[in-house]
Amino acid sequence: MIPPDTINLIPADVVGTSRERAERWKRTLLPVLERLGSPLLSASECERIAVENSALHFSAAKCARHIRRIIKEVIRRDAGLKQFDRLHLYLEKNPPQIAKLAPAPDFADLMEATQGFTNPADPSTAEEANFLRKAWHSLQRLTLRGAPPKRAKAEMLEFLWQRMPWLSSSRRGLADKIARKFHHYEVGHGEAVQLLDGRAARGGERRREAFNADQTEHIIWHAARNCGGRVAQAMEDLLARADELALSGDFVEFLLTHRGTGSYVNRRLLDAVLPEVEMLAPYFLGKKALDDATAPLRRVYDKLPSMASVCADDFTMPVYCWLNDEAGQPILDARGRPVLTRGQVLLFQDVRSRKIIEWVLIPERNYTSLQIRTCMNRVCRQNGIPGVWYFENGIWKNSRAVKQTAPAHWSIARSVEETEFGWERLGVRFIHARRARSKPIEKIGDQMQRLMEGEPGYCGRDERRDCPEETKRAKLAVEAGRERPSVHFRSFDEWETRLGQIVQRYNSKAQGGRLQGATPDEAFETYWPHNDPPTPLDAGCWHLGAHLVRKFTVGNGGITFKIGKAHFSYFDENLSPFRNREVLAWFDPEQPESIAVTEPNDRLGKTACFVSRHNPVEFDATLRPDSPEAADYRRELKKQHGFNAYPKARYNSLKPKFQPTFRTVVVDRETAAMAEALQRGSDDKIAVMKEEDFAVRRIQDKARRLGQMPTELRDYSPETEAALDRRLKARRDAGKEIEEEP
């Protein structure tokens, strides 16, 4: 072995087998040598670890005695430096070295011949045959110069063994090969074809009789159908059930002939049946495996502009979060434990630019069609109506909101047919992918999950197999109530915010492939169809954004209904003409602040109008005139007055037309004079009462300003008003004195 005072590198002439063995010893002993002297590991523990490591890197575990001897030798060569990562410390004593080759002028033409090889280390069959032809001529040239034939042949064999290792793996094999090739060349009268490798010339020829097709097909079917593709198990099972399956004697003999001990199967039989077993396996596994075994089609996106096609799908992201209420506190399940969830994420992607144009995080395990439809509406309002909705099957195809049953008494925007017809009237088509790999958004989901690695609560792509131990322990601790969920996981709101940052990071990250180094944001703008831009979802197609429709009779409270525990009430001036009439209410949960209303038979939207939602007001809003609550109260009061505007206007317009008429009463002079006197006294009395009421309210207002209870003052008294005026004047004077102080 190389002494410790030599160079740190292994000489280049050490053969590869010695290098490889030194690498194995290094991987075996380095973890142990770095822990020598540690108080946590005893010497026996270190030896045990080294023995276990040797079983991994060698064909068999080394004994502890041999391990101790190697460790002692490595420590001696290290000479106290404790740099055990140097490879030469593990090299064996006197390692075999590559012999230094002397120049061979007699075979210079052979060295030149190898320079023309495509791969000098692995020449082709024709290149090898041409080289052997030149070697035969070089041997004849040496003999003609007077060299003894045996000596000339020995020198050539030595030259070939040292310089041309690709000719043979052993010296004896090289000598036999040269003798055989030269003999065939001489017998064949110098034909170069005699030097070609016969195996290459006979490639593809069947030299043995083919197996019986019925026998191999029986093995193929049984292995693929009943044994998971394992041929050895299939043959063993067929032998064990020969009587049950009524197998013929010839077939049983065939199985016994080609079935060995253990898992051995005749190699030629295995090569004949295994490819077909693997070929049939997807047909037994199901549609997904069959799709994966189908050749993919390459798609070209050069002529596709932005928003021409929008693809969407759902993803269960590999990150746990805990559900929180409005106050930020954990939501508990029936057992009082915090609810941890991965939720669902709906992603909408522009196919051309690969940009995520819309997304939503859903806390539940299952999403609904209304959530899909809401995202579709957002896409149309922000980026315009796409040319194609590219969805998968399942709920994306069969739902009645895109298409799911509405809440009680509601239906889905008239009918599926009319909804689809409405989209198609705007030039929109629905395409549903049959295979997962057909959806371009699948790759976007993969890239998004890569950006989530290292996030708190990350549980791996396949939680059963690659979930980090840290996440498992944290999940158990939170569910057992030992620790708060905020210690290890993000809340739902925090994860929603972080997810938005990850989406933004993805959209701003440069990509190769068809984006050619641009980011999805840049590509979305680059490929935007300025000559023919998409149309946003506006008033011309507002009904496509409405999820639900229901018939109502507008009562005194307007349109009122409940969905779940949420209460909705709508009335304003626009709904006033429909009082006590039946209408169709079109409701979009994404925009609950207003509801669309049409007449039941209006299919063209000529009577369409939008009605504002009534919002509850604070009970004491009127006591604080300048507060925001008071402003909300006045706004809702305006809606109420507007809702009554049409009936009031109709009453005022119809009242003069149908005012009743009466005969004039004719009385004598004394009766008329008495009536006039009584009326005049009544008017005077009413005026006095109004003046007293005004004075009482004036006194109550002054008492309120002084902090007294105004309800206690119900009668007017000049003395009381004068006393209140004096106290108010004294308070004003006191306030002026405070302001004048320096």
Description:
The chain has 742 residues and is an alpha+beta fold. It folds into six domains: 16-90; 110-201, no CATH class; 213-292, no CATH class; 311-503 and 512-526, Nucleotidyltransferase, domain 5 (2-Layer Sandwich); 546-661, no CATH class; 670-742. The chain is 46% helix and 9% strand. It has 26 helices and 15 strands. The strands form four sheets. The chain has a five-stranded mixed β-sheet, with helices on both faces. It has a five-stranded antiparallel β-sheet with strand order 7-10-13-14-15, with no helix packed on it. Strands 3-2-9 form a three-stranded mixed β-sheet. A hairpin with a 2-residue loop joins β11 and β12 (566-570). α4 runs antiparallel to α5. The longest helix is centred in the C-terminal third of the chain and has 37 residues, at 669-705. The chain is elongated. The termini are far apart.
Second rung of CATH, namely the architecture of the largest domain: 2-Layer Sandwich
CATH topology heading of the largest domain: Nucleotidyltransferase, domain 5
Strand content: 5-15%
Number of domains: 6
Please mark out the parts with pLDDT under 50 across 5 or more consecutive residues, or reply none. Answer: 1-8, 400-405, 414-421
Q: Count the strands?
A: 15
Helix fraction bin: 40-55%
What is the gyration radius calculated from CA atoms? 47 Å
Average pLDDT value?
Answer: 80
Q: Count the helices. How many?
A: 26
Oligomer: single chain
Structural class: alpha+beta
At the first level of CATH, what is the class of the largest domain? Alpha Beta
End-to-end span in angstroms? 100 Å
* Biggest sheet details: 5 strands, mixed
What is the 3D form? Answer: elongated
**Strand arrangement, major sheet:** 5-4-1-6-8
